Amino acid sequence: MTDTPSNYVVYGPDANCTLALCPVESICITFAPTFFTAAIYITLYKIILYLGPQYARFRPKLYYWIFIPCDIFSLVLQAIGGALSSTSSGGSKTAVDVSITGLSLQVFFICVFVAFAIDYVVRYRKGQRVTPRMKPLSRSFKIFSYFLSLTIILILIRCCYRIDELSDGYNGPLIHDEGLFIGLEGVLILVSTYTLMIAHPGPAFQDLDEEEALQQANRPDTERQKADS
Question: N or C: which terminal CB in the chain sees fewer CB atoms within 10 Å?
Fold first, then answer.
């Protein structure tokens, strides 16, 4: 990145990384996926209420009570790293290490979340062999599930790219590769925005009785025990 005579910040292979010139861009790049992941965490809570909280290992709300603070923690580390990089114009190795730590934790938390989501699906399917649903899952819910899964994969790829991008610091080759930045940063977040629009929870959960589902979540764990067996 470099400051042109017209005071624009540009990317390119010959650009110099001067983060002090573009704090807004750095902050927006850092924050980009955080609101998406928070929405996804809350959406898993809705999915559990819709499919059956008795198949979850924990109370449904614990999924976002745990993962949203974890995501905020990783975001704080990235913000600290970005701030240190801005004050040092990208020359601080400590700043890079802090940013990579925050990004690595974000990837780790997303992977753990995905593992819990897969675990719930497995337990739900096992439970369905014992007590099938009264009516099959709607087409809108299936579409919602497919595109939500795609969104998670796209965000995970984006975060992994950011780790690799910063692995050589702010003077490394990847951070100056404009094509990769546009494709694996901007395009992935843009596509994630549209896939989340398609995966809108409104049509998927239009027949969800949340109060009844929460009451079911507080009942004895008989169905949970069946899912464990």
Answer: C
